[in-house]
């Protein structure tokens, strides 16, 4: 009862079907080939045209199935795997049409009723399909379009506005910790709090947190901070309201304000009487001190503060420019702080181990490690930054597997005790700070921190207020390498953190690695040249070769303008 159409050009599918018949749920292409001794380049071109054609006639939730002989696809599923340049590079080719690989499994001709393998050199002779694979593709989210986001709020009795740093536009006001959120980060926080509530009286203080902090950070490297340029509020016109309202980020006491230019340094417009420098909060620990100073700290009660924090950092697997922090703080009588620390740690250990075992069925190693046992070079960006903020007694560590199959101790939190005279001379405040994002990754088997921030519903639909092992929906995403070489400006220090932050911004967080591969200094002039290799790869959407090339060009332009380097 099926309609069969012959002589269909797979690169022009919409030409063969009326508009009302173009909504296909599945498109199958078994063993595509240009014919005769066509090389891999021509067959890649065939696939590229086919995928673009399929995108025009496929439903939003539809699938494209492509069967290839063993080794042709160029993915790790091929055994043995061909060299990349000698394969059809099917995942990268499909990405050019907006598709991601969602599944790959053996092609078994015997399971298809009436199917017969023919076509070997146009003879009535089957060709070898042993080890052949069926590749299943689905549509990806389109490339993101990040527009400037403006916020306004009340500071020192004055309404001011600021432009959100471009690298954070898609991460501001996501509401992961809100009551109606199903995000796994919130679930981990709720499970931790529930476990600790069995040993402490718990009070949540999230409502009193400020997005901005002010003042000078003597112990913290200023290049690691997102400094904010404040401007006095101006009433937006009707046209500006209609054009820009969608780009406003809303927080408690934050409204819409018209666009202002983003500045790299801290400046305040004439007429704005704010005396201190402001920055996006890099930690919630200062908020603990603010609560204590206000006298809102109840002795014996475990106070819980949580929210996103923001830090400029280098690009690395567990290095995040924004993550959700939770702080548990309790004031106890001096001399009993060690007992409080032990109770707090035991509650955290019990909760995390239970969650991990429920999700993966495996036991997890989580332990305390004295801060003095860590060398400076061994600290992760998270741990190193916390060390700058305050003196740490213990790191909370979990053992994780690294990409090179080695086991490594990963810091997910810190413990310290401090005496605050404003509470009482007889009281000591004990607090634990945890990186909720990193904890969630390790518990749910999420290898890439960027996945926590994806807008793709295929991520969040896996978690309905219950934690489970994450199932990857974009397999073997293609990666692309580009090198950039430049002369450093004379007499100026090169800021590598800023260099990495620019890469994050222009690529939309698709740069996963930056490696210094060469350094050269001219003997005659003393001029220094650096060469870096950037690796681009997306964890949740299609990333094409052309898109990456455009990002690389923009990156070159930005580092020239922002860092004053001379491109080579």
From TrEMBL:
Protein name per Swiss-Prot or TrEMBL: phenylalanine--tRNA ligase
Keywords: Aminoacyl-tRNA synthetase, ATP-binding, Ligase, Mitochondrion, Nucleotide-binding, Protein biosynthesis, Transit peptide
GO terms under biological process: rRNA base methylation; translation
Catalytic reactions on record: tRNA(Phe) + L-phenylalanine + ATP = L-phenylalanyl-tRNA(Phe) + AMP + diphosphate + H(+)
Molecular function terms, GO-annotated: ATP binding; phenylalanine-tRNA ligase activity; rRNA (uridine-N3-)-methyltransferase activity
Family indicated by similarity: Belongs to the class-II aminoacyl-tRNA synthetase family.
Locations listed in the record: Mitochondrion matrix
Entry's EC annotation: 6.1.1.20
FDX-ACB domain sequence ranges: 475-568
SMART domains for the chain: FDX-ACB
Gene name for this UniProt entry: Fdxacb1
Any single Gene Ontology cellular-component annotation: mitochondrial matrix
Keyword Aminoacyl-tRNA synthetase: yes
Pfam family, one: FDX-ACB
SUPFAM superfamilies per the UniProt record, alphabetical: Anticodon-binding domain of PheRS (SSF54991)
InterPro entries linked to this entry: aa-tRNA-synth_II/BPL/LPL (IPR045864), BMT5-like (IPR019446), Fdx_antiC-bd (IPR005121), Fdx_antiC-bd_sf (IPR036690)
